[in-house]
Amino acid sequence: MFAHWLSTAWRSLAANPLFSLITIVSLSIGCCGALLVGANIKQHLSFERWVPAADRIFVITRDADEKATFFGAPEIVHPESTVPAPMREAVEKQLPDVEMAARVFRGASLLPPDPSIPTGQPLPGEPPRTPPPGSVYVDPKFFDMFGLDFIEGSAAGLSEPNQIVITETAAKRVFGEVSALGQTTEGANKRLLRVVGVIRDLPLTTHLRFEALSGIRTLEQIEAVNNARPNTIPRSLNDWSTGPGGSVATTYISARAGIDAKIFAASLKHVVQTMADERMTQKGPPSPDNFKYNYDVVPLLGIHLGAPERIPFAGRGDPALLLALGAAALALLGVSAFNYVTLSLARSLRRRREVAVRKVLGAGRGALVRHYLAESSLVTAISLVIGFALAELLHPWFARIIGQPDNLFDLFDPVFLAGSLIVFALLALAVGAYPAFYLSATRPRTALGEGGAASPGRMSQLVTGGLMGLQISAATGLLIIAMTMAAQASFIEHRPMGFETKDRYEIFAPCFFPPETPPEELARMRARCQSGMRNVLSDMRDVSRPAYFEGPLMGGGSLLGSFGRSASGEKLGDSMRVLVDLDFMQTMGAKLLAGRLFDNASAYDRALIDYNMAMRARSKSTVRVNDSGQMSVSSRVDPLAGPPPQPPARVPVIISRSMLPLLGANTPERAIGQQIFSLGSETPLEIIGVVEDWQQRPLRFEPYPIIFVPRGGERPVIEIPKASAESVQSRLTQAWRDYLGNPNATVSFTPLSQTLEGAYRADYLLMSTVSAFALVSIIVAGMGVYGLSAFEMRRRVREIGIRKALGASPYAVAALVIGRALVFAAIAGLIAWPIGLWIADQWLSSFVYRTDLGWAVLPAASFIVVAFVALAVSLSAARAAAIRPSPALRV
């Protein structure tokens, strides 16, 4: 019986190609969008769910207390995923409900680097590079907690040092097709490592990233070797310090089965905070290494989509983007489904006689309903297959549009496939139910007496018009939101930032030396490296005005200090401190509002820089090298040096505009000549210039007040044309290698324009996504309008023939057809205005600086949608205008 229904439905679709084409194409587009978005959302919701008992695992995090100070100034510290290494053991002892606890210590890669993965900073114009997976040192319980699947070997061998467990992909990369178990490889730090196990690659839906794991014994051996070196900083796994003296680890705690997760998390947080406070109290008052921390507990399942102020892990998902994707996909699928319902109702007028004949021949209402539901199921099934094929073809492009990895779209996931089939079965029932029940209610006598002059009933007109209005309203609303986002994106792109980013590049030239280099030689090389970039840049003729700075140039930072009218007086406010050389403001194109910029020829402006250079000459460096060859240097005054130089009596500074309200100055000119003090410092800062605000942070926030201090710096910024950036980088790298005598030295360029672009990445992605869905929704709605108008013209052939027989011109007939559609579309668009404007305004309210587009976007969006509707209807209107009266009157 069901096969008979399907064959009948297929013949019906084949007999109505226009209806079939429009409904299948529109539903296929809706299914494609829903599948793409659904697969992406499902992957985001699946993070960490592969872990056994994931709902009972928690991560301990920390950040600085808002009232904590760092050498007397408030310190900005972002959440960290690492806590003191002894925390794990202490928690296990004090909290009986703990089932397991495991630590993860991050470290340099233990395996040889993968030559296929580019390292370092990207070249100018290249997208950001994803760092390769590194290596970690773990407790034995880590394997049990996360249920890692061993292909060969086990974690038992990690009880000895220099033993590693590697992933399946890493094993194939390093050892090829040969079994990796028992093989030995030389790690990146020249350490011989033996493979004792191979595990399956972790799922993509996890925050864990590593290719090799080793045990705590290996880490202890590395620390012992480092601690045995002269001039190295002692490190201990038993030290509660979070600074250079102690080791920190990401610590996972698992609760026992049957324990209430919320109660356990609260108890764990209390225990951790109490222990940390006790340890900090024992270490004395706040210092650079031990100021007060706040501790938090984050569920493992809450890492990926949790609140950013609580989640310290990189690569998190964006709930706002996923919500917008879901809403846009539902809107598109709804528009596509409405097409089927409206066109089915319009087509039903031509099928009433068919239904009447079936009823006269004995067909019951239930059989008719099942028949027409089979037709909607067939249309939905065909659309689903086409939509799935389109989704599989387009998902790499869609991934680029929303800025997510291609592997976050698993259309063949069994759970997702099962859910999709259920959803689309319900969709088939939803789109076919009303047309099926409407047709099955047809009375045979009435339908057989209508002939071809059937008119839609009032309920049918209301449903058809309402659904078509919803289509147009949804498309108009999406377009309003998309146009508002595009206007804000343009506003962001062209708004003056207070400085120039075009053709400005920050140079990063690290100084890494072999671990076997003697400390005395390292000190000499360190001094040469420190001043070397200035010497190298001075020889680059096509690099004009290189400048140097220290501190948070863009994106904020931790140099936030308090200032007042005196060193110990009342606080006026907080400001960012950026240390610069005397050419920095000119190189960055700072916009001067009052006063003057720093002058290289001024002894007054150079006083603090000269003082620091003299103090540096009196200092003696102590070099510390870790096992990976990375170096740190501390300085102390040489006891054989002469008397110290006198510090400057005053320091000239330049402030940004946002400092003016804190100083009580209503104009930039009133701030010139004022003196302020950093709280705790006796040296006055004299304001010699005021520049426009530097928008260091996204436009969602007010800019920081900034004080530019002429103290010099080591981070170079250069101005070069973009076209020659790659050439300059190549020549500068070679010059840097020749200068250091190190063929492995690297130099990378970071365009300043990319720094803030990253902060708006989510906004650009959201704009692109909504715009794409708005465009597709307009196209689908236009297809529905065209199909409905085509069916309407078939029903009104006799009416149009009478009008033309009475003298109506073809243009008048076309204008009548188009005019009704335009009025309907305009009214439907007006309904979308308040909703679209409210959503757009809510989105813009998160920006401190926003476009003033306002109401102007509403008529523009409606005009675009109405124009598209007019284009769709004009195709049917042209056919109506060409109708000849005599044949039409015989219909």
Plain-language structure description:
With 891 residues, this protein is α+β, with helices and mostly antiparallel strands. It is 48% helix and 16% strand. The chain contains 24 helices and 26 strands. The strands form 4 sheets. Strands 1, 4, 5, 6, 7, 8, 9, 10, 11, 12 and 13 form an 11-stranded mixed sheet that branches. Strands 16-17-24-21-23-22 form a 6-stranded mixed barrel. Strand 2 and strand 3 (73-74) form a beta hairpin. Residues 66-77, 123-127 and 284-290 have low confidence and may be disordered.
Secondary-structure topology with pairs:
Elements: H1 2-15, H2 17-45, E1 57-64, E2 69-70, E3 73-74, E4 83-84, H3 87-94, E5 98-107, E6 134-138, H4 141-146, E7 150-153, E8 163-167, H5 168-175, E9 184-186, E10 192-199, E11 210-215, H6 216-228, E12 248-255, H7 261-282, E13 293-299, H8 319-360, H9 365-401, H10 414-440, H11 444-450, H12 458-494, E14 504-508, H13 519-538, E15 544-550, E16 560-564, E17 571-580, H14 584-587, E18 592-595, H15 603-617, E19 619-625, E20 631-637, E21 651-656, H16 660-663, H17 668-671, E22 675-678, E23 685-691, E24 706-710, E25 715-719, H18 725-740, E26 748-751, H19 752-759, H20 761-795, H21 797-805, H22 810-844, H23 857-881, H24 885-889
Helix pairs in contact: 1-9, 2-8, 2-9, 2-20, 3-7, 8-10, 8-11, 8-12, 8-20, 9-10, 12-20, 12-22, 12-23, 13-18, 20-23, 22-23
